[in-house]
Design goal:
By secondary structure, this protein is of the alpha/beta class. Helices cover about 45% and strands about 15% of the residues. The chain has helices at about 20-30, 50-60, 65-85, 105-125, 140-150, 175-185, 200-210, 225-230, 240-245, 260-265, 280-295, 295-310, 315-320; strands at about 10-15, 85-95, 125-135, 160-165, 190-195, 215, 235-240, 265-270. It has an eight-stranded parallel beta sheet. Bound molecules: adenine and zinc ion.
Amino acid sequence: MTYKSMPKVELHTHIEGCAPPAFIRSLAKEKSIDISGIFNADGTYAYRDFNHFLEVYEAACTTLQGPQDFYRLTKAVLEESASHGVVYQETFVSPDFCGGGDVSAWREYLAAIEDAATEAERDLGITLKCVATCVRHFGGEKAQAAAKCAAETKGDFVTGFGMGGAETFGRPADYAYAYDMAREAGLSLTCHAGEWGGPEMIAETLRDLKVTRIGHGVDAIKDPALMQQIVETDVTLEVCPGSNVFLKATGGWADHPIQKLRDAGVKVTVSTDDPPFFSTTMTDEFNMLAQTFGWTEDDFNEVNQTALAAAFCDADTRATVA
Ligand code: ADE
Ligand code: ZN
């Protein structure tokens, strides 16, 4: 049994991180940018560890230079997602890579991304929402500029605010002002935590940034009291098992904590994060969960419903997707 055609709800992807290496290579060629060092001989992305992954990721982003590049990227990403049964997807988009935090440039990039999303919804039946995202290791000031971009464009398409990047850089409180701006604008909130930073980082993120979702959050498994808090406060985890296994944030598939988190009553969802970087797809994630933990269609239906309930969209969209 393969789960390729089963409908899927995916909450945690990064638009730039979904770019196939061939797509980035062709942009680099068009623009005469030499980034040959970021590819293996077989054409895949080459990196040694998580910090190097972030460097390679940012090098790939240098080829994405205008709204039109993001239009093409979004088209390609949604075609691939739809081919794996994804019917609703949220993607992180960083104002830092879309105009450098300038609000009017950001509006132009967003318009291009939203055009591609509208066309994909019409042609492929996939809905995309945008979570504007700051990059943690770019620091608090850049995070505030990103939050301003997010706040100014909050609407039917930009529905959330988030933070990715190097989790061990700074503390959540350094980003509280940015998150306050986003919350006051009415955006829904998520933040990467507990991928690398331990359960303390999750606890601090919940306390200082008041998010309703945590990106990854797998380190919660190391602290039963925190797991209980997560259950009681209805926080949803955006778990990306293939990403964790590939980057060695956790052990292998058999040791991945998603099963134990779910058994403890934690709301878990399943996403790919940056699929071409981790050699994964939503079909692979579902197939591996079925193979490793014996998940069946009922389990995947439940996970989809959990994701939809935690999705940063309005009730109308939720009803259309369900
Ligand atoms: N940006 C893209 N992928 C990421 C990940 N897995 N963790 C943190 N930041 C990221
Ligand atoms: Zn991520």
